[in-house]
Amino acid sequence: MGRLVFLFASSLLLMVAATTVSAAILEHSFYVKNLTVTRLCNRQVITAVNDSFPGPSLHVREGDKLIIHVFNMSPYKITIHWHGVSQLMSAWSDGPEMITQCAIRPGNNYTYNYRITKQEGTLFWHAHSSFLRATVHGAIIIHPRARHSYPFPKPYREVPILLGEWWNANVVDVENQALALGIGPNISNAYTINGWPGDLYPCSQNQMYKHRVEQGKTYLLRIINAAVNSHLFYKIANHNMTVVAVDARYTNPYVTDIVVISPGQTVDVLLTADQPVGSYYMTANNYASGSGTAVGVPFNPTTTRGVIIYQGARSSTTPLMPVVPAFNDTPTAHKFFTELTSLVGGPHWVPVPLNVDHKMFVTIGMGLDVCPPNVSCQDRPPVGAALSGNMNNVSFVLPTMLSLLQAFFFNVGGVYTTDFPANPPVQFNFTNPSINADLPLLFAPKRTSITKVKFNSTVEMVLQNTALIGAENHPMHLHGFDFHVLAQGFGNFNPATDTLKYNLFNPQMRNTVSVPVAGWAVIRFVANNPGTWFMHCHFDGHNSVGLSTAFIVENGPTPETTLPSPPPDLPEC
C-alpha cells in the first residue's frame, strides 16, 4: 500500500513539474513614440512601438505569463489591448480606454500582466485609443506548450501576415476631423501587407512584402486583419490554403482559394508550395458590403499585393496575379464565414453550453444624433445631425472620470447604469431600407448603459444588423471571452425557423464575429470571467460614435473567481 501511495505521489509531482516547466514568465518593454517612415511618396511621422511598423511580434506558449511594460513617449494618450486574449482573472490588463483603465498619459507608463490560458494560434495587440491602432499593432503568436504539438502536421516555417491600412495623414487628425464634422472618417489611401503597400501604389515599386519558399514545403501563414475600417479578401495566385484555426481556436481543415477576414479577426492557414517554380502575387482588397446599399458607404477600392517567390525562380519572371474578387462579393464572404467549424476534441475545444440563462436580441447599426456643440454637421442630411452608432437604440458613451472597471470594483455610483435593453425598445422591419424615412428611428439616446450578468451564467445574443443609414457587415468583438457562433443568415432573424439552424455540435469559436450585411448572427458564451468587458464594432469609425456596449460579470463564489485588486501603477484619469 505504501508503495502505491509513493508511486501516486511521484506521478503527481511529475505532472506538476511538467506543467511548471512548460510555462514561462516572459517580460517585454514597449516604447511608444514617434517614428518617421516613407510611404506613398511621403515622409510621415507615425506612432509606433519599439521603432517598428508593424510592431514587435510576441511569441509565447499556452500557459505562459506575460509582463509587458508600456512606456508612452508619444504625444498622445494611449492604451494597449491584447486582442482576443481571454484575460481570465486579469481584467485590469485588458486595455480598452475607460472600460478597464484610463489612458497612459504622455511621459507615463503602465505594466500589463496576464497569462495565456487555453488558447493556441494567432491573436494580436493594438492601441485602444482613437485611430492609433492603424500603426500601433503587432502579432501575438501562441504555440502549444512544450512537448505538445499542433493538431496538424508541423509546418516547415511560420509566417505572420498582418493586413493593414495606410493614411497619408495623421490618423488622430483623421478621427478628430470626422468627429468635428459629424461624419464618417476619410477612407484610407492604401492597404498594406506587413506594413508595405505594394507595387500598385505610387512610389511603392520597392515597398512590397516578399516571402521566399521552397517547393514542396508547407508554411503556416498567420493572417491578421489589423485594418481600422475594412473587411478584406486575401488570395495567393494559383494556390489553395487550408484553414486550421481562427481567432486562436482550432478548426476542422477547410480548403479554400480565398480568405475573408474582418477587422479584429485572425485566420491560420497552411500553404503548400506545390506549384511550378516561379513567383506568385498575394493580394488583399476590400470587401465593401455596404457599397451596394441605398445610402452607399465609401470605401477604398485599391489592392495591396506582396509576392511569394519560389527558391530558384528567375528574378526576371513576372509574378502571376490572382483573380481579385469584386468588392461587393457577399456570396463568397458569406460562404467563408459560415462554413468553418470547430475541431471537436482538439486542444482547448469547448462544447456548446446548452442551457441559456440570459437571452438577448440586439440590433446593431448606425443612426444619427442631434448635432453636438462644436460639431458642424454640415455634410450629413438632415442638416443639424451627426453620425452615430447604436445597439438596441442606445448609443454608448464612455465614462470620463473613472473607468467602468474601477467603478465596478470600488462600487462607485453615477458612472454607468445596468439598464441596457435585452430586446429592441421599438420593433420595426430591421433590414428594410424604407425605415430610413422614419426619422425618430434614426435617433438613439446616448448613455453609458451596460448589462450585468451573474458569474458562470450562459449568455446568448442574437445580433441583428439594420438598414438604418445603410446596411453593411459589422465585425462585432467581445473582450474577455471566446464565443460559439451558432448560426448566421440574411434578413430579419425569425426565432420560429432560424433557431432550427443552430449548430450545437461543432460551431466555430471566435472573439470577433462578422455579422452579415442586412442579416444576423447568433453567439453564445459562458460568463466565467469577472470584470467589465467591452463589446463593440471593430470599425473604429463606428465604435468611436457609439456602436458598442459593455458587460459586467459579477464575482464568483470563491477567492479564485473574485476580481483581484487593481495594480498600484494603474493610470489616473
Automatic annotation (TrEMBL):
Q: Which CDD domains match?
A: CuRO_1_LCC_plant, CuRO_2_LCC_plant, CuRO_3_LCC_plant
Give compartment(s): Secreted, Extracellular space, Apoplast
Q: Name one GO biological process term.
A: lignin catabolic process
| Cofactor(s) the protein needs | Cu cation
Cite the cofactor comment.
Binds 4 Cu cations per monomer.
Q: What is its main location?
A: secreted
User: One Pfam annotation, family name?
Assistant: Cu-oxidase
Identify the GO cellular component terms for this protein.
apoplast
Q: Return the broad EC class.
A: oxidoreductase
Note the InterPro entries from the entry. Cu-oxidase-like_N, Cu-oxidase_2nd, Cu-oxidase_C, Cu-oxidase_fam, Cu_oxidase_CS, Cu_oxidase_Cu_BS, Cupredoxin, CuRO_1_LCC
Q: What is its EC number?
A: 1.10.3.2
Could you say which protein family the record assigns here?
Answer: Belongs to the multicopper oxidase family.
Functionally, this protein is described as follows: Lignin degradation and detoxification of lignin-derived products.
NCBIfam families hit by this protein: laccase
Q: Which PANTHER family match?
A: LACCASE-7, MULTI-COPPER OXIDASE
The protein's name: Laccase
Give the species this sequence originates from.
Gossypium barbadense
